[in-house]
């Protein structure tokens, strides 16, 4: 069984006093500071409107900071990021394999040159038999697996996930939580995961960053020291229940409610 925090892991990126203001007066984030190390699984947990998705967009370079800095260790390259959105965002006219090919295609790489990588990642998500299927032929959970495969196919340093399982039923969500941890272990990536679910954040993460409502800011960090891999035994353990209470109390404080 893998243990955690065996010495300091190398840094991936650092957010330093990041503030983001929209339309001149709407402060979405204020002085957010976050260190991300190699192999981390970090959940951003907080109420709606606290800037969790804004933080992901800033890291992804989809928008710029109003002040503060985001620094990538060793500089940033095109292989640094994979992104999974709340919806699978698959191209309906393209097959599963063609959807997973998209990151390579945007770089000008032919399907033939990367077909082995595409097949390998589809095997990891259990969809190798659906190479030629179209999104309309897939369940919601299968579509999300394709989206996750697409984010991982280039073996990025960091994967950003914006509430990817929020629209799924509980059984499918639990199954994909398990699958995600297995995939992370296999490719060795770092993950920042946005969620509203205390239970999901505790099961998946080694660090839970609790954010307060607007202006978004970090008010607490909860460390989950349980070793990976995690199973249903962890979900029903006293340790899990205690960590859920700790994260829930921090979330209530973030929302301005009594713990």
Overview of the structural elements:
This protein has 259 residues and is α/β, with parallel strands linked by helices. The protein has two domains: 11-80 and 157-254, 3-Layer(aba) Sandwich (Rossmann fold), CATH 3.40.50; 88-155. The chain is 36% helix and 24% strand. It contains eight helices and nine strands. It has helices spanning 52-60, 96-105, 111-124, 140-152, 170-187, 198-204, 232-235, 238-254, and strands at residues 11-22, 26-37, 41-45, 67-72, 81-84, 158-162, 190-195, 207-212, 217-223. The protein has a six-stranded mixed beta sheet, with helices on both faces. Strand 1 and strand 2 (26-37) form a beta hairpin. Helix 2 packs across helix 3, helix 3 crosses helix 4 and helix 4 (140-152) packs parallel to helix 5.
